[in-house]
Amino acid sequence: MPVSSSQVATDKRLVLGCGALVYELVELTQQNAELKQKIDLHCLPAHLHNTPQFIAREVDLFLLEHAHKYQDIFVAYADCGSAGDLDKVLAKHNAQRLPGAHCYEFFAGAPVYESMLDEELGSFFLTDYLVQFFERIVMQGLGLNDYPELRDMYFKHYTRLIYLAQTENPELQDLAKQQAKQLGLRYEYRFVGKQGLNPVIDFPSGKSLANQKIAVEVQYDPT
Amino acid sequence: MSDQDDFELSELDDKELVEQIQDDLYDGLQDEVYEGVEILLSRDWDANNVLGDALVGGMKVVGEDFRDGILFVPEVLKSAGAMKSGMELLRPILSQSSVDLSLGKFVIGTVKGDIHDIGKNLVGMMLEGAGFEVIDLGINTDVDEYLGALDEHKPVIMGMSALLTTTMPYMGVVIEEMDKRGMRNDFHVMCGGAPLNQEFADAIGADAYGRDAARSSEMAQTYAEAAKVA
User: Fold this and answer.
1) pLDDT in tens, B81-101
2) CA–CA distance, A21 with A129 (Å, rounded to integer)
3) Looking at residues B144-170, what average pLDDT do you find?
4) ipTM (interface predicted TM)
5) What are the pLDDT digits (tens) for A49-75?
6) Any CB–CB contact under 8 A between B168 and chain A?
7) CA nearest A5: which of A71, A60, A94, A68?
8) Cα gap B191→B178, rounded to integer Å
């Protein structure tokens, strides 16, 4: 959903998101006519997930071109491995972002995410998008199709794959199980829902435009 | 990088062969790098020169192109594998060399909470190539392990690595603890890892920031050579 360069300043919110969140962001921001009217959504390519050093630059390039058209800008990324560079870009454009270090963290919630890592440091996470596009983002993105021998280099210290699911989808769960097997990892499933994205539709006025915010209590019992 | 028809490496003169080894290393061709190194050694090349000119020289280009976004991790790992194959031939010769070319010990580890060691291993390989005795503490290294290794090995340099933005602040914890124990000034501390930058290194009080494996190795070498003379 590209932003038209002919637009003039607007009271709409620009949401600039990670391509790996595109389905959830479309669902969230297009859930009713008022939100559709209020939000312009644009996503950057999902493959930036594998090259986090370029995220801040890409966000900056987009905002340099479009930020002047909006008074309200929300970037649907966490820090995502940018090591603070994204925050510097956001400060420049007076924009805000999702909390935390990674999408895994804002999806699961910081306490749950941290407890999973405390429990087992070698935890590799997938989301719905990453399960669905595992072949492109993980296998091709990490070069594992071309160089299968790299699998053990990348994953030798990982012990389990945790599928942090946004939807309860048996087909994706089956896929994730196979993917864990492909990577030589133990499989675990945690339904965490999409509530971590709610800040995208929280407006400064405090007025909620959502029919219903996505609210799922994340349950996690490490035992 | 290379796109030539098949040819015999042994038909190349020394200069061409060094360039070809660098190209093959860039392309991650283990067998070809091994063969190239073997040929240079058979031509009575000094093992140190083979290492410096062909392997380290080649990895320097790889490191630069990785930094510039031309190469990505899979390609760098293939190149590292190719370097390793060349090192298999050179390591026994270098270790038996009568001339002490050692730059001293380098203690290296991935910080606590972080299990990523690909970058650290690349740096370790480059350091070994440059002439350091590398003491690798592995992953998830806590402050006591770092400081214990400093006591035990008395290295010229200690290096810390992290891939995660959530774990990189631990480097500051280690440096603070060194300071508390009065040992900060006894060791040169380097840090590196994908999310780091010079600003971060300055903020935690590290002596140097290595932006990539090749640069880290160069910086370590420069420091160790100067320390040796001093």
Assistant:
1) 898 899 999 988 887 875 555
2) 7
3) 96
4) 0.75
5) 888 889 999 999 999 999 999 999 999
6) yes
7) A68
8) 15
Report whether pLDDT(A129) > 90. yes
Written in H, E and C, the secondary structure of B111-150 is ECCCCCCHHHHHHHHHHHHHCEEEEECCCCECHHHHHHHH
Closest chain B residue by Cα to residue A78: B165
| Beta-bridge partners for A101 | none
Chain A residues within 8 angstroms (CB to CB) of chain B:
50-54, 79, 81-85, 101, 117, 121-122, 142-144, 146-147, 150, 153-154, 157-158
Distance from CA of A154 to the nearest CA of B (A): 7
Indicate the residue of B73, B117, B200 with minimum beta-carbon distance to A157.
B117
CA-based nearest residue to A83, from B28, B117, B85, B204:
B204
E-assigned strand segments in chain B: 104-110, 132-136, 157-161, 188-192, 208-210
Burial of A204 (0-12, 13-18, 19+ CB in 10 A): exposed
Q: In what order do the strands lie in the sheet with B208-210?
A: B132-136, B104-110, B157-161, B188-192, B208-210
CB contact under 8 A, B164 and A101: yes
Q: Which pTM does this prediction carry?
A: 0.80
- CA separation for the pair A148, A125 (Å, rounded): 20
CA atoms of A147 and A126, how far apart (whole Å)? 21
Please say whether the dihedral angle defined by the alpha carbons of residues A8, A13, A18 and A23, taken in this order, is positive or negative: negative
Tokens at B45, concatenated: 């090349």
